[in-house]
Every structure is written in structure tokens, then in C-alpha cells.
Design goal:
alpha/beta; 6-stranded mixed beta sheet; 14 strands; P-loop_NTPase; ABC_transporter-like_ATP-bd; ATP-binding; ABC_transporter-like_CS; ATP hydrolysis activity
């Protein structure tokens, strides 16, 4: 569905995107993560033909961006970060306008508007002006506008920023359903849990480069580091510490007062927990708490970029 090969973009002397490459199969849901200023929005703007790329190649549905851009755009729906609606028009009027911009006839746009309003759960607000909508409702109509021409590739740039939990959940379920019907999705977000829920594969961009790409499981197992066991005890002695450090699959043990941080190989935490309990009993150590933290995207992202996603 999409092939991006070594695409680059500079503004003046500052290079924003430094040779990013990735591809998507039809029906895939792909999460694009990166801290602010990493180059995410510029990358998706180039893919959608809104911003020309300086070098490299982009094809969407077999059409080359830059040569067959108009045909490629017919396959793409874009949900921008900012609301792209006319506030003094009704929801239906906005959808009609964007449908006609995509080349639909009046009859096609009218039929599709009704379908889209039902899809985003706002049929009863069809005749209300956008300026009367909540932030979450505006976001849902914003998505609806991108769906009017039944795109094969849906690009969503942080579609849930600043909205209420109910609208956020509705948007996530809508995206999930669209993907399950075969629509290819590129999804950027500052909410890690959204990407984990929606996306088959994930790409992490930092400073204009794609620094990691793969499934969540693959990325965490290859790059996310160890599983961490947090142990709180009533008292620690050297014999107990020596026994823990000697256990198979334990990579590191750090101690702070009555708390132990034990880093272990990710696939072996159940065996290590069993051994820990046995050693605590053997050394008469009273366990107050035990918590297992498996590799996750948040930790992976921090390890790779040195920043949290919202930095």
C-alpha cells in the first residue's frame, strides 16, 4: 500500500527528515511515534503529497508521489492535527463540502455524508453548526471528512488531542473498526497506550531518523531491555543479596534502603520469581511487596530517545 524509500526534507539549512524508509502492507495499522520536533508530521505530510520531498521515493497504492500525486491522493484520507472544518457550517454541510472536494457528485456526497455521520456517532447532530460542538465531536467530524471518499490509506495525526474520554474511546473504536474492514492506517499519537491498542507495527522517529521499527513484542524483546522486579523487604543481609545475584537469568541488582531492583532476562521472570521466594524463605527475609515490570513501549521509547513521548 505504501513504500517510502530514503525520503528527506530540509527547510533552509535545517534537515527535518534524514532519509526515512518504511513500507506498509494493505490493511496494516502502523503507529508512528516520536517526541515533539522529531519529524513525524513532516513525514506524513510528504507521504500524503501535502509537502514535496527533497529526495527519495514515495508510492501509494502503486502511484508515485511527485509524478502521479493526484491519483495517489484519491487513495488517501488525512486527519490533520488541527481541526479542518468550517465552524459556521453544519456537520452535514462540512461533509458535503469535503466530499465534493474529493470529487464526489452531489448525490454521492449526500449518501456518503449520512453513512459517515452514523459511523462517527453524530447522526442526530447533522444539522447543527460545528461551532456548537464539543472538542471531541469536532474531532469525530474531522475524521468523518477524511472518510468521505472511502480512502484505502487513512493518515491520522494525533486525532485525540485535548478531548474527553468518551470521545477518545469512540475514536479509538472507530479506527479499530476501519482497520478491521481492511483500511490501512498510519496513526501518530502522544498517548502510548493508543498505539499499543491500535497498531500492528510501530516505527519510532527521533531527530528525523527512523531509529526502530517492528511489532511491539519484537521491539521490546530486541531493544526494550530487561524485565524489572521491584522487591520491598523488611531487612536485607549480604547472604541474601549474594544468593539473588547468583540466580540464573539475573543481570543486575541494585539496592536502595529496603528496596531491591532486580533486572532479569525478559523471558524468564516466572522462574526468577519462584527462586526469589525460595531464597527469601531460606534466609528468613520478610517480603513486603513484589512487583514485576515487563518491557513496554514507554520504557523502550525512553531507552532509545532519552526522552518520554510527551517531552
Amino acid at each position: 500500500m505504501l513504500q517510502a524509500e530514503n525520503i528527506k526534507k530540509a527547510y533552509g539549512k535545517k534537515t527535518i527528515v534524514k532519509g526515512i524508509s518504511f513500507s506498509l502492507q494493505k490493511g496494516e495499522s502502523f503507529g508512528l511515534l516520536g517526541p515533539n520536533g522529531a519529524g513525524k508530521s513532516t513525514t506524513i505530510s510528504m507521504i500524503s503529497g501535502l509537502v514535496p520531498h527533497d529526495s527519495g521515493n514515495i508510492t501509494v497504492g502503486g502511484y508515485v508521489i511527485g509524478k502521479e500525486t493526484a491519483k495517489a491522493k484519491q487513495k488517501i484520507g488525512v486527519v490533520p492535527q488541527e481541526i479542518a472544518l468550517y465552524p459556521t457550517l453544519t456537520a452535514h454541510e462540512n461533509l458535503m463540502f469535503w466530499g465534493k472536494m474529493y470529487g464526489l457528485t452531489h448525490g454521492e456526497a449526500k449518501k456518503r455524508s449520512a453513512e459517515v455521520l452514523e459511523y462517527v456517532g453524530l447522526t442526530e447532530r447533522a444539522k447543527d453548526k460545528i461551532e456548537t460542538f464539543s472538542g471531541g465531536m469536532k474531532r469525530r467530524i474531522n475524521i468523518g471528512a477524511a472518510l468521505m471518499h472511502k480512502p484505502e490509506l487513512l493518515i491520522m495525526d494525533e486525532p485525540t488531542v485535548g478531548i474527553d474520554p468518551q470521545s477518545r474511546n469512540h475514536i479509538l473504536e472507530t479506527v479499530k473498526q476501519l482497520n478491521e474492514t481492511g483500511m490501512t492506517v498510519i496513526y501518530t499519537s502522544h498517548y502510548m497506550e493508543e498505539v499499543e491498542y491500535l497498531c500492528d507495527r510501530i516505527g519510532i522517529i527521533d531527530q528525523g531518523e527512523m531509529i526502530a521499527i517492528g511489532t511491539k513484542t519484537d521491539l521490546c524483546s530486541r531493544l526494550g531491555g530487561d524485565t524489572i522486579i521491584q522487591l520491598t523487604v523488611s531487612g536485607i543481609d549480604e547472604a541474601f543479596l549474594f544468593a539473588i545475584r547468583s540466580l540464573a537469568h539475573v543481570n543486575d541488582v541494585t539496592v536502595h534502603e529496603s528496596e531491591l531492583k532486580i533486572e532479569i532476562a525478559a523471558a524468564h521472570h516466572e522462574k526468577v520469581v519462584t527462586s526469589l521466594l525460595a531464597e527469601a524463605t531460606a534466609h528468613h527475609i520478610n517480603l513486603l511487596s513484589l512487583q514485576v515490570q515487563e518491557p513496554n513501549l514507554e520504557r523502550l521509547f525512553l531507552n532509545l530517545t532519552g526522552r518520554t513521548l510527551r517531552d
